[in-house]
């Protein structure tokens, strides 16, 4: 296992950000950590990136303990921060060179490697431009180039899509998949965006510092059998027990609507509308999403 | 892991950034220069106030350029340094040497006004003064680094500068000699690290030993810098929630 986390716990004063989290990441997979803001993702990311010490438990990355063998871990991880980490007053290549030097790379080997990552991320023609003058999407690419410069085996990305438009986001993910397929890099990515989580090979759902579910996105969604029906009704509290009595389905009230998981959505809708004329204002039917999975496991909404 | 590569890269980064913000260059030399000319002319003794004004220039420049540490933290560059395998001491040294070099250069610019003071230090005295200025620049930069590491905002940094460093300079022998000070102020001056930076600089410029003695002054300044450097390296090595503030 390229990343293995055991019973990881972190307190900030009286607040518990991580409460005994355990999971493992396989080599060459894109592993997503999904959860709402404040769910513990950032704390987990910081501990794995050797920026923060755990209060209890242990984490190993690429075979080394993040606490006791930090320098060994740092040589093997690439870190892409949610916030920028580039020096805006320096050019693209000056940033990359400084990064190389911090990792002990220099001379020709460094120059060639800078060329290589800059070309691959499509920022080579901007090499002498100040980072200040680049767009958000380009900066993120330089950020990734910086993270990959020293050929890490594990890439840690914290909310990489923040501030990117849909086009740039798609591009980013294509590249992440390429990294996994062509270079065998393991990618651990934290996110609160569903589209992004859907593209991970496996997912960890974090809520209030605890793991609530783990598995491939499709597998997680299939745990909710069939369809999700949302009924917009006048009185959720009154209708819910009637639905249970009549159709044997459990309905949960979410934001003034009723949410029902059922094997056969379209038939249920037809029967329910027929059975309670006038009580239902509008109806929605969809296949389960990761949002549903999260809701199902925690009773809380993701966003 | 190579120790000097990170030092070099962080040192040159400070210089490149400084060069790209030329407006800053004039600022730090300017105000102590005006200060010196006004006070020195007022008392009719430009010579006496010169070493103190030079120390003030170096102090301003050194301490304010370590404010870039607060920017580095805010802009995330600091974090990306901290997740690299470079030794913490080499990162701290590179950052400090960068700021110290800038302060040194500004001190040297100020030194060019020595003919106006009436002192005639000669070539040897000037070289010695340049060396002392470098040491003083290093000491003040380390001080600035240790303060900046604790600060979340540049406002807080200015407050420390005005409430602590400036008063220390006032009772450092820059404005009146220790011999003329009254009882307890004399003890305050002896306990004040800034006093030793001023007296270390007075000797080569004025050509005769003062109080405290020149060698002792250099030694105290060097020890002070070394002790704070240890503190700076230790803080950079700690992994706490504060790193993200």
How would you characterize this protein structure?
The complex is a heterodimer of chains A (303) and B (245). Chain A is α/β, with parallel strands linked by helices. Chain A has 2 domains: 3-216, P-loop containing nucleotide triphosphate hydrolases (Rossmann fold, 3-Layer(aba) Sandwich); 225-287, Alpha-Beta Plaits (2-Layer Sandwich). Helix content of chain A is 38%, strand content 28%. Chain A contains 11 helices and 14 strands. Chain A has a 6-stranded mixed β-sheet, sandwiched between helices. A 4-stranded antiparallel β-sheet of chain A has the order 2-1-4-5, covered by helices on one side. In chain A, strands 12-13-11-14 form a 4-stranded antiparallel β-sheet, with helices on one face. In chain A, strand 12 and strand 13 form a beta hairpin. In chain A, 42% of the residues are buried. The mean pLDDT of chain A is 91. With 245 residues, chain B is an all-alpha fold. Chain B has one domain (4-240). Chain B has 11 helices and no strands. The two termini of chain B are 29 Å apart. Classes of the chains: A alpha/beta (303), B mainly alpha (245).
CATH superfamily (homologous) name of the largest domain in chain A: P-loop containing nucleotide triphosphate hydrolases
Strand content of chain B: under 5%
User: What would you say the CATH architecture of the largest domain in chain A is?
Assistant: 3-Layer(aba) Sandwich
User: Which ranges of chain A are low-confidence, i.e. pLDDT below 50, for 5 or more consecutive residues?
Assistant: none
Shape descriptor of chain B reads globular
Largest interface: A-B, 32 and 29 residues
How would you characterize the largest beta sheet of chain A? 6 strands, mixed
Instruction: Let me know the average pLDDT of chain B.
Output: 90
Helix/strand order of chain B: HHHHHHHHHHH
The number of strands of chain B is 0
Distance between the termini of chain B: 29 Å
Share of helix of chain A, binned: 25-40%
Supply the number of helical segments of chain A: 11
């Amino acid at each position: 296992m390229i990343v293995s986390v055991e019973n990881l716990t972190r307190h900030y004063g009286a607040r518990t950000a991580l409460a005994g989290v355990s999971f493992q990441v396989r080599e060459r997979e894109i592993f997503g950590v999904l959860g709402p803001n404040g769910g513990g993702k950032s704390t987990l990311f910081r501990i794995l990136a050797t920026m923060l010490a755990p209060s209890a438990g242990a984490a190993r990355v690429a075979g080394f303990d993040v606490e006791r063998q930090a320098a060994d871990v740092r040589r093997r991880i690439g870190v892409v921060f949610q916030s920028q980490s580039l020096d805006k007053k320096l050019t693209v290549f000056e940033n990359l060179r400084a990064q190389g030097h911090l990792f002990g790379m220099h001379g020709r080997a460094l120059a060639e490697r800078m060329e290589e990552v800059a070309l691959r991320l499509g920022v080579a023609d901007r090499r002498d431009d100040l980072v200040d003058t680049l767009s958000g999407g380009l900066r993120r690419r330089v950020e990734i180039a910086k993270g990959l410069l020293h050929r890490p085996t594990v890439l840690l990305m914290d909310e990489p899509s923040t501030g990117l438009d849909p086009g740039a986001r798609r591009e980013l993910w294509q590249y992440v998949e390429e990294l996994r397929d062509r270079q065998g890099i393991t990618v651990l990515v934290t996110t609160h965006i569903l589209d992004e989580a859907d593209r991970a090979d496996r997912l960890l759902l974090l809520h209030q510092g605890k793991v609530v579910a783990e598995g491939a996105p499709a597998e997680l969604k299939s745990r909710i059998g069939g369809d999700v029906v949302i009924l917009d009704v006048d009185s959720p509290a009154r209708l819910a027990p009637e639905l249970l009595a009549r159709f044997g389905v459990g309905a949960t009230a979410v934001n003034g609507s009723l949410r029902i998981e059922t094997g056969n959505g379209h038939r249920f809708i037809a029967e329910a509308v027929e059975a309670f004329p006038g009580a239902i204002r509008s109806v929605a039917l969809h296949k389960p999403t990761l949002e549903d999975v999260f809701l199902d496991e925690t009773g809380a909404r993701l966003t | 892991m190579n120790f000097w590569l990170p030092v070099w890269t962080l040192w040159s980064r400070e210089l490149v950034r400084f060069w790209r913000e030329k407006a800053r260059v004039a600022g730090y030399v300017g105000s102590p220069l005006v200060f010196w000319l006004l006070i020195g002319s007022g008392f009719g003794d430009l010579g006496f106030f010169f070493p103190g004004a030079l120390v003030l220039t170096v102090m301003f420049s050194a301490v304010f350029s370590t404010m870039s540490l607060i920017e580095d933290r805010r802009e995330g560059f600091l974090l990306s340094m901290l997740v690299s395998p470079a030794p913490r001491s080499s990162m701290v040294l590179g950052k400090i040497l960068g700021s110290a070099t800038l302060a040194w250069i500004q001190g040297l610019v100020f030194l060019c006004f020595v003919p106006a003071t009436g002192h005639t230090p000669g070539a040897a005295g000037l070289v010695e003064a340049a060396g002392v200025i470098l040491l003083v620049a290093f000491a003040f930069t380390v001080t600035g680094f240790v303060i900046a590491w604790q600060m979340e905002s540049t406002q807080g940094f200015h407050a420390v500068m005005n409430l602590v460093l400036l008063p220390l300079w006032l009772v450092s022998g820059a404005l009146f000699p220790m011999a003329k000070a009254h009882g307890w102020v004399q003890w305050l001056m002896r306990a004040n690290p800034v006093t030793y930076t001023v007296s270390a600089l007075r000797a080569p410029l004025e050509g005769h030993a003062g109080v405290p003695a020149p060698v002792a002054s250099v030694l105290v300044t060097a020890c002070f810098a070394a002790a704070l450097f240890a503190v700076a390296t230790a803080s950079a090595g700690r992994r706490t929630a504060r790193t993200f503030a």
